[in-house]
Amino acid sequence: xxxxxxxxxxxxxxxxxxxxxxxxxxxxxxxxxxxxxxxxxxxxxxxxxxxxxxxxxxxxxxxxxxxxxxxxxxxxxxxxxxxxxxxxxxxxxxxxxxxxxxxxxxxxxxxxxxxxxxxxxxxxxxxxxxxxxxxxxxxxxxxxxxxxxxxxxxxxxxxxxxxxxxxxxxxxxxxxxxxxxxxxxxxxxxxxxxxxxxxxxxxxxxxxxxxxxxxxxxxxxxxxxxxxxxxxxxxxxxxxxxxxxxxxxxxxxxxxxxxxxxxxxxxxxxxxxxxxxxxxxxxxxxxxxxxxxxxxxxxxxxxxxxxxxxxxxxxxxxxxxxxxxxxxxxxxxxxxxxxxxxxxxxxxxxxxxxxxxxxxxxxxxxxxxxxxxxxxxxxxxxxxxxxxxxxxxxxxxxxxxxxxxxxxxxxxxxxxxxxxxxxxxxxxxxxxxxxxxxxxxxxxxxxxxxxxxxxxxxxxxxxxxxxxxxxxxxxxxxxxxxxxxxxxxxxxxxxxxxxxxxxxxxxxxxxxxxxxxxxxxxxxx
Amino acid sequence: xxxxxxxxxxxxxxxxxxxxxxxxxxxxxxxxxxxxxxxxxxxxxxxxxxxxxxxxxxxxxxxxxxxxxxxxxxxxxxxxxxxxxxxxxxxxxxxxxxxxxxxxxxxxxxxxxxxxxxxxxxxxxxxxxxxxxxxxxxxxxxxxxxxxxxxxxxxxxxxxxxxxxxxxxxxxxxxxxxxxxxxxxxxxxxxxxxxxxxxxxxxxxxxxxxxxxxxxxxxxxxxxxxxxxxxxxxxxxxxxxxxxxxxxxxxxxxxxxxxxxxxxxxxxxxxxxxxxxxxxxxxxxxxxxxxxxxxxxxxxxxxxxxxxxxxxxxxxxxxxxxxxxxxxxxxxxxxxxxxxxxxxxxxxxxxxxxxxxxxxxxxxxxxxxxxxxxxxxxxxxxxxxxxxxxxxxxxxxxxxxxxxxxxxxxxxxxxxxxxxxxxxxxxxxxxxxxxxxxxxxxxxxxxxxxxxxxxxxxxxxxxxxxxxxxxxxxxxxxxxxxxxxxxxxxxxxxxxxxxxxxxxxxxxxxxxxxxxxxxxxxxxxxxxxxxxxxxxxxxxxxxxxxxxxxxxxxxxxxxxxxxxxxxxxxxxxxxxxxxxxxxxxxxxxxxxxxxxxxxxxxxxxxxxxxxxxxxxxxxxxxxxxxxxxxxxxxxxxxxxxxxxxxxxxxxxxxxxxxxxxxxxxxxxxxxxxxxx
Lengths: 525, 676
Prior knowledge:
The complex is a heterodimer.
Chain A: H1 2-31, H2 36-44, H3 50-57, E1 64-66, E2 89-96, E3 99-106, H4 117-133, E4 137-141, H5 152-168, E5 174-178, E6 181-183, H6 188-191, E7 195-199, E8 204-206, H7 210-217, H8 223-227, H9 229-235, E9 241-243, H10 246-257, H11 298-305, E10 312-314, E11 322-329, E12 332-339, H12 350-365, E13 370-376, H13 383-387, H14 390-403, E14 408-417, H15 418-423, E15 433-436, E16 441-443, H16 447-454, H17 462-476, H18 480-484, E17 490-491, H19 497-507
Parallel strand pairs in A: 3-4, 4-5, 5-7, 6-8, 7-9, 12-13, 13-14, 14-15, 14-16, 15-17
Antiparallel strand pairs in A: 1-2, 2-3, 10-11, 11-12
Chain B: E1 4-7, H1 11-23, E2 27-32, H2 40-44, E3 47-50, H3 63-73, E4 77-79, H4 89-98, E5 101-102, H5 107-114, H6 116-125, E6 133-134, H7 141-151, E7 155-163, E8 166-171, H8 174-192, E9 197-201, E10 207-215, E11 221-233, E12 236-242, H9 249-265, E13 271-278, E14 284-290, H10 297-304, H11 308-316, E15 333-340, E16 342-343, E17 349-350, E18 353-354, E19 357-359, E20 380-385, E21 392-393, E22 400-408, H12 411-424, E23 426-428, H13 434-441, H14 444-448, H15 455-459, H16 471-492, E24 509-514, E25 517-525, E26 530-534, E27 539-544, E28 552-557, E29 560-569, E30 572-577, E31 580-587, H17 589-596, E32 609-611, E33 616-621, E34 628-629, E35 634-640, E36 643-648, E37 653-658, E38 665-666, E39 671-675
Parallel strand pairs in B: 1-2, 1-4, 2-3, 4-5
Antiparallel strand pairs in B: 6-9, 7-8, 7-9, 10-11, 10-13, 11-12, 12-15, 13-14, 15-22, 16-17, 18-21, 19-23, 20-22, 24-25, 24-31, 25-26, 26-27, 27-28, 28-29, 29-30, 30-31, 32-39, 33-35, 33-38, 34-37, 35-36, 37-39
Organism (chain A): Planktotalea frisia
Keywords (chain A): Ligase
Domain CoA carboxyltransferase N-terminal (chain A): 16-272
């Protein structure tokens, strides 16, 4: 018996070695994706492989892969003879600077990265885990689209992913990187995530491609023009930023993750910082020019307020009249929304309202405090705006600010006119701390327009009108009328802005605000 | 002594004069135009009087306005600085009529030295060496040879009506003089329809060297050594130094004595400058006399310890000079670099705008005008400036915004101190010539002191395109960048919310790429710094207290200082040092390997169209069809939302077609103009 046992043990040992050998071989095969030839062609297009991308995204040696051996179950059109391990997508989790993220990376070298039922299931699996365990999902998209051989199974797969995007929205941050083609129904998964980043020259997104466009509308357009990085960052605003290549795009997503909380159950991250909280910037005293019609760069204010001058801008190339992005104050993430006088005088219009509203809602969903820097002459007038519904789009920003319960600190640097004053995180929308610089002008409109209405009778008399205008300016071109009413909590010195704003947010760290119970609100979409 | 002095100037020189006046206990009055109401000189002065709109010809140089300000303030004396009214005899007369002291020479001296022909005549009479030449008409080739011999070869044969090199010949002997005369004459006849020719001495390897003189109204006069000002761009001085690396004691003495003789010949009483041109054989010739305080006076102050502004004020007050020629000793070496708001990468076009950052290097704490430099230690840094962070550089005045000076016991050390000072000088928001100045400080011809007035023209014939650093410098920067990046990476890995026990470990092996060069290295940090070991086994010791966000890194590599301006770049730093502007990537070996696989993108062919970036009204078109424009040049102004936006050329080009005119209302992406 004893000998038998020994024998059997020896046999078992031998079998284990074989098993380990097989595991190693299977892993090796899976890791090769679509094979060297296809990997070379991927590289020739300027694209890294699915696994190289994951390697760059995650901390060294931190990737834990799941479902490496998953294969599809399709038996039509000869698919039964083509069963690559992993089925065209690499999934799992790892860390970015030690913090957990879930990740999927589509492998264009395996069946064109096409989405089958099992491919979709792999993505759904890590999305479920992400929601349950509270960690962001980063999707790296590089796929030819639906696995046509599978028909409705593939479509069903997309649907399952969409549903999870919806469920995860507001629970964990979802980031989409478009690193190759992303067409047809496939675009709707990224569309529902929080941020979309594209790679210049190698990625495109559209609902219908150039061929169909040509057939249906007779429009001649290239894939790049129709859905390239430039189109989506500058024209459509579908994408939040575009980067030169895979390496840069991935590095910048790592940088973004450092700003974001892992889920809505956690506070935004805090990082050691090397900056003086009370840093005085005397140059801010002269930021607002003497001439009220002269623009200045609001980015200078943002970078001079921020820890270490670091500003992560979102949608930098779209609706430049408003700036959105993340900074840190005392190492803590703060979302910034700022009118940009350098572009269209910082006016609110359809595009800037939509851009800022979505950003404010992201911040509120993930407990990121919001800093609003205001220099706004009003809403952009004109038929183009009205016909396209500036009323409802403008209302989105108003709604988003009003429903946000995160700490809200507002600083008016110069103009805060009319309805736009109310919209830009005014005291009336439950902003917590509202500051103004001495240069602030809070009024229904500029002095000239106001005078022409109030003193219509004197319009013929230029001297009188000039006097009225001067009187109006005297009365309202300052922050003190608003301060007298408590709409502005304090008029602050520009040079001490960083200290004052940091202290305001510090005081709000334990803020709790509840809204009336509702199933959900009905924001004017 | 005067109780109150008005400074009829602006910018750095007004600030400079105010400093000394304050030291002397004199109340100061500034004048300012509309554009200067927040300027530094206004801030520094005890009183300030507004004198009109921004253009100088409506404010600073309007004698009546300045006189009114003097009356209003009750100032007893006026220092005119340089430029503006400093050499205006009418202004000096107006002051005299009011009984206000002019801190400058007597009216007569200004008038006599203000005219080139008169001053040359006076100089000749005072036995001051002038450029030999023959002003009369030259009859024929024989005559030309005769005159050339009188003048002495080499000679320049010039057309009276000449210009742009046409009708100009250099002759080294009789034969060339004969030929040159004939061809100049023909060329002049053809080009200008005027074949008159004259001949003067051709100055080989010309240098611009000037003598500082100081005279009182009691007949005393001294010279305070020379200043070498050969490095000029289009007659604009860029770098000056004192003493000149070229002069010997005998030449200095001869020049100095002639300069004093000239000053005394016109009854000079104040500080003044006699400019000479000096050839390769140390022959010197009088050019002109500047009857005012010179821009580059600080280098003289640094090597003599004399506060020239104080001396000027005392002389104006009727005092006798308290120093004699024997008291004047030249100690050590001083260099001045002029910081201009001009973009060297864009053909030195003036650049205006807001100084979003302006941090000059720390001045030597002990420095006060008039204190002998040598007393202050081994190195002196002095920065005469008229601007401040957050200030505006306007289009109305001189683009010079600061004069950075260093002093050290030797020229070599003064240059090295200047290199570090330039690297430490932070200027953002406008284009400026700091990189160019750094390049000059590292130029072998400058280092050897062999520059002539043609230096910039000859060494930078196609303009300035930045500096390519030698590998030794790249290694130092790479090592420092790796050490800095390690600090940043360790901080990144300390973000909250980490997965316990599964933290990121920041590695020791890194790859640094910069200026198309790649270095693999290992970094070992200890308590006081890091040792960076390159692939080839060479090691460098790096230390410094840089932390993320610092825009200036004061590092030390192998015990030599390395000062770098540090900016943000994805995956690394933007480093500016020694005139180079580098994108430095610091990556793990694996990241670097994958980064190398990325396609190299050729810069996209920027569109040859200028599109309207916003719906708006064209207010002004600044260029014409066929005009060549420089990168950054203003093309037109579009008004939108009552704001004026200036559209600028993205690169050098020629305007081929203009589709819009002032008053046109345009939509987004309408074509405003096209380029060839």
